[in-house]
Structure formats: structure tokens, C-alpha cells
Amino acid sequence: MDSQNKSNRQVQRAPCFSNVGRRNAASPSVIVIGGGFAGLAAARTLYDASFQVVVLESRDRIGGRVHTDYSFGFPVDLGASWLHGVGNENPLAPLIGKLGLPLYRTSGDNSVLYDHDLESYGLFDMEGNQVPQDLVSKVGETFESILKETDLIRKENSEDMSIGRAISMVFERRPDLRLNGLGHKVLQWYLCRMEGWFAADADTISLKCWDQEELLPGGHGLMVRGYKPVINTLAKGLDIRLGHRVTEIARRYNGVKVTVEDGSTFVADAAIIAVPLGVLKSNCIKFEPRLPEWKEAAIKELGVGIENKIILHFQDVFWPNVEFLGVVAESSYECSYFLNLHKATGHPVLVYMPAGQLARDIGELSDEAAANFAFTQLKRILPNATAPIQYLVSHWGSDINSLGSYSYDTVGMPHDLYEKLRIPVDSLFFAGEATSADYPGSVHGAYSTGLLAAEDCRMRVLERHGELDIFQPAMDEETLIPILISRM
Ligand SMILES: Cc1cc2nc3c(=O)[nH]c(=O)nc-3n(C[C@H](O)[C@H](O)[C@H](O)COP(=O)(O)OP(=O)(O)OC[C@H]3O[C@@H](n4cnc5c(N)ncnc54)[C@H](O)[C@@H]3O)c2cc1C
């Protein structure tokens, strides 16, 4: 390293507030790594608890896998766009409610695989013939029966297998559930929707664990104005350093030292690591000393899938007024679907959403070729479709800031990997969708893990330093707060 570079390096005590308010140098300090939902929720909570907080974010924007784009002249989400569980049980409900953000409910309560009202599907075969609605519903019921049978297979077998393998076994023992012709193609489409939910192919999803996540009541609602206002609200007033890619995290008996790509370092009492699982898997962040073996194993073994969005903006609406346009085919790989944003937002936009291997294959293409591919699929079912006037393509799998879309349970791996990912190591706390056993792969899951990591961190720092800001020697009776007492 030359002397010029050396002199550019700085060791910073996190953070450098200009308006510290109640915060002062004696307040406990924390570095939050990653400015997505989890990191910002943690940072917000600790900032409000009078911690000195600095957020180090590798991109030149906040939000992570929540990314609302405005280049069409109105908001569209390239990452998350649904709130899964539109009700008071959702930890995000108070915030979204307070902001008065509108939601468009695309479905009621039922299972993840029937997350959209069948009435609003428009399915077509490759020749552009619409599948009769009663067939779509009938095959939906068959799919449900098949999944019930896979549950029996799960109970009978101690060894895990893929959901794809289990479905094949169901067909062997219950040939009556096997479908032919158009029915078979519609069934493949249901499978394709299931693969979209997990961002992974059926032959990699664990039969034992696929339904372990908790579904909040209230159905699924699209964030009509995008997720950005929620992100901005969480971030308000925080010290966020954009373009700060963390490369090394060292933990010592008295705190942490975090090094950024340009060589500058930050020190604090604790750190909250809220980067995606894909980034942790890639080992581009060095831990010194190494993380314990059980933590490294959890990072390695939990799956991360890929789902992308190809967003097509048209001059006019020429498609039927349904929420989903689907293409049915011989295999789930060839099936696909478009979300009709016009229904929810009034804008002439269709969103093509490939997942698993198809997403990986499309990821090899240029943006223009990817948009053409999606448009070709559309032309198959609507031959009179006119070309889009604008498009956007996401790259969650290859973007070094995410390296995947969201986590899922792979064959043979236990569901407690999420919890192992969450458990703190000394003064390192972990947050992010992949640390949520109950709500993995979701925005509200990421948000809750941020709150949890902040609370764990607050308690740990409190044990060590005491809470300076709330100490007032003479309290009058009115300000006395009862202490919490529990009895065994
Ligand atoms: C296409 C797609 C569709 C989705 N749809 C939905 C949906 O409809 N509803 C839903 O609930 N969920 C959905 N999800 C999942 C949801 O987006 C995620 O679960 C959630 O946003 C993850 O938040 P996070 O804070 O854990 O991670 P992230 O949002 O990824 O935040 C991590 C942050 O860390 C930063 N970072 C990475 N490396 C470094 C580094 N070395 N140093 C510093 N910073 C770093 C990243 O830039 C990022 O900002 C979708 C995801 C995708 C990709």
C-alpha cells in the first residue's frame, strides 16, 4: 500500500453525527451492515434508543431487494411488491397504515399456492387458446389433492426428498391424479407458480420443510405506490454511508472493527450484519476470527433461489382484465406468467416473473434480449400484442449486492438453519430475511429480524455499559415506571 493510500485511510468511531441531540460520545455505538429492510429496521430502532448508529451500504441506494423504480414516470417494484398478510398481525401493518399507503389485495387468506383468486387468472396454451376456467379450477383441486398425498409420503419416509420427487411418487401410487393433455399443462403451471414462490425448482425444494413458514392472515396485497416510501421512512435521519462495501469484520473483546473496500475502518461496540445470504455464501466478507463452524455450516446449507422481474411498459392495454396471464406448457420450465399491474395501479404494465433455472437462463441474456424473450411469450398467447415502449430487467442472481433473490429450504437440510443464521456471535448480531424461521423470503420477515437483532444488541450492550441516557437520580412519582417482575 502506498503512503498516499495510507493517509486516505481513516479509523472512524461510528458514527460522526453533526447533530447528535441526546446522543453523545458516551452512548453505545453500533455499525449496521446493509441498508435493506432488516438493516434499516435495526438501525432505526437503535437510533431511537439513543445509540450512535452508522449504516454501511454497498450500493448507491438504500432498500436492497426492495427497489422501487420511477423511470416509467410512476412507481414499479423490481424486487418485493406484495405485503404478504394484509392485517394487523403483520409487523409492518402499523407503519404502512400510518403512511396511508394503498394496497391492492390480489387474494384472500388460503395457502401460498393459491395466493390468487382463480377467477382472475387468464391461462392460455402456446397456441393462444384460452384454457376454460372450469378446467383451471378443477386442476387446482387436483393439485391440492396431490400436495395432500405428498404429506403422506413425508410422514412415511424418514429421509427427506424433493417436492418434485414426491409428486412423481404420488403419480405412481395414485394414477387417478395423473392428468393428460391440457390438464397436464395446467398442472405444470401450478407447479411453476409454486416454484415462483420459492424462487427454486421443484427438484431442489425440501419436502420436509417446504410448508414450515408461517402465513399471516389477510391475504396478499400489492403495494400500489411501491415500497420506497416505507424504506425512506425507516431511513429518515439515519447516518447512512452509501457506496461502502464491507470486506472485513473483526471482533474483539471490547467491540468490533469493520473494514470497507476503500480501506477505511469503523469501530463500535457491536455490529448488526444484515447483508443477504448470497453475499455471506460468497465469502466476500472476511470474518476475523472466523465465524464458528455451526454458523459457517448454516450459511453454506441454507438455499438461496432466484426470481427476477422483466417489467414491460406498453402504450395501451390490449390484454384481458385479469390479475395474472399464464402460459401453460408440457413442463413447469416452459410455463410462465405475467402480473397485470394495470389492474392494481391503472398503468399499462405487465410483469414477467421467471424463477429457478428459467431465471438463471434468462439471466445470461442482455436486458434487451430478456425483454424480447418475455414479449415473445406474450405474443404466443396474445398474437396481436404490440411491442413495449419501455422495459426494466432485474438481476438479483448476478448482482454482487444480493447474489440471489431469497432463501428456501433445500432437500435434506433442517429448517432450524434460519435460527442458526440468526444467533449472535459475540458482539455480532445477524438480521435479514434468511434469519427468519417464521417468515423467510419476505419483507415483513426481514423487518422483524431487524427489530429482533436490535433488541438483542440493545440488551447485550446494556449488560455491558448500562443505559446512560435514561438515568435520572431524582424521579418523581409520576415518572416512575414499574419494573417487570415474573414468577415461575
Ligand atoms: C424479485 C423479488 C420479488 C420479491 N417479492 C416479494 C414480495 O412480493 N413480498 C415480500 O414480502 N418479499 C418479496 N421478496 C423478498 C424480499 O424482497 C426480501 O426478503 C427482503 O427485501 C430482504 O431484505 P433484507 O434486508 O434481508 O436484505 P436486502 O434487502 O437484500 O438488504 C441487504 C443490503 O445489504 C447490502 N450489502 C450487500 N453486500 C454488502 C456489503 N458487503 N457491505 C455493505 N452492504 C452490503 C445490499 O446492497 C442490501 O442493501 C422478493 C424478492 C425478490 C428479489
TrEMBL record:
Top-rank taxon, per record: Eukaryota
GO molecular function, one term: spermine oxidase activity
UniProt record, GO biological process: spermine catabolic process; thermospermine catabolic process
GO cellular component: peroxisome
Binding site for substrate: Y352
One Pfam family matching this protein: Amino_oxidase
Keyword Oxidoreductase: yes
Needed co-factor(s): FAD
Residue intervals of the Amine oxidase domain: 37-457
Chain positions recorded as FAD binding sites: V246
Claim: Oxidoreductase is one of the keywords in the record: yes
Record keywords, A-Z: Oxidoreductase
Family designation: Belongs to the flavin monoamine oxidase family.
Protein name as annotated: Amine oxidase
Upper lineage: Eukaryota, Viridiplantae, Streptophyta, Embryophyta, Tracheophyta
